[in-house]
From TrEMBL:
SMART domains (UniProt xref): HTH_LUXR, REC
A Pfam family reported for this protein in Swiss-Prot or TrEMBL: GerE
Domain Response regulatory: residue ranges: 3-119
Keyword Calcium applies: no
Keyword vocabulary terms for this entry: DNA-binding, Phosphoprotein, Transcription, Transcription regulation
CDD domains xrefs: LuxR_C_like, REC_NarL-like
Organism this protein belongs to: Aquiflexum gelatinilyticum
PANTHER family, A to Z: NITRATE_NITRITE RESPONSE REGULATOR PROTEIN NARP, TWO-COMPONENT RESPONSE REGULATOR
Endpoints of the signal sequence: none
Key word Secreted present: no
Name used for this protein in its record: Response regulator transcription factor
GO MF annotation list: DNA binding
Length: 208
């Protein structure tokens, strides 16, 4: 079980993220806080595996959280949740020691997989990957409503259709091969296919 603490001053967003994460059997949110000071106070007497922090918060912002937590708990894992695909902000977080940077408009799958990757010790700090989170790539309600495909899954279908292997896709998207394999299993289940050939055929049939 991966124990998580979340700091974000947008209460509705924070509650939604907490609920989403708690729905995953491997994750448990131990606390939700509206600023960095509340989070630090909690961490004095509670242990968590991964910390999620917004950048813009009152009293103590995300940069302050990263700096303080990394000083007090050097082996802590920190993921920044941000509204901004801004390279300067990204580089600041990277310099302070953040383990990953996820945009708030990224797919829920993206956040969940990032949490699991970071927990396993993988440092995911690539600005190209941040930009990938923000690419629409022809996504439409048709794929979302009819097949329940996320943006990332649709992107993978297109890459598989082009003949890319799991390793090539992982390198292109700055993901682990394990993450790509997990995405492919979900895609197969959603589209009702069991092989690459069936997947490619289905992709042509539905216009991907």
């Amino acid at each position: 079980m991966i124990r998580i603490a979340l700091a974000d001053d947008h209460k509705m967003f924070a509650k939604g993220i907490a609920s989403l994460l708690d729905d995953d059997d491997d994750l448990r949110v131990e606390g939700v806080f509206s600023n960095g000071l509340e989070l630090l106070e909690f961490l004095k007497s509670n242990e968590v595996d991964v910390i999620l922090t917004d950048m813009n918060m009152p009293f103590l912002d995300g940069a302050g959280v990263i700096e303080s937590v990394k000083r007090l708990i050097p082996n802590s894992k920190i993921i920044v949740l941000s509204m901004y695909d801004d390279e300067a902000i990204f580089l600041k977080c990277q310099k302070l020691g953040a383990d990953a940077y996820v945009l708030k408009n990224a797919d829920s799958d993206e956040l969940i997989y990032t949490i699991k990757e970071v927990h396993e010790g993988n440092h995911i700090m690539s600005f190209q990957k941040v930009l990938q989170q923000n690419i629409d790539d022809g996504y439409s309600d048709f794929y979302k409503e009819k097949f329940k495909l996320s943006k990332r899954e649709l992107q993978l279908v297109r890459m598989i259709k082009q003949g890319l292997t799991n390793k090539e896709i992982a390198k292109e998207l700055h993901l682990s091969v394990h993450t790509v394999e997990a995405h492919r299993k979900k895609i197969h289940a959603k589209l009702g296919v069991s092989s690459v050939a069936e997947l490619v055929k289905k992709a042509f049939e539905i216009g991907i």
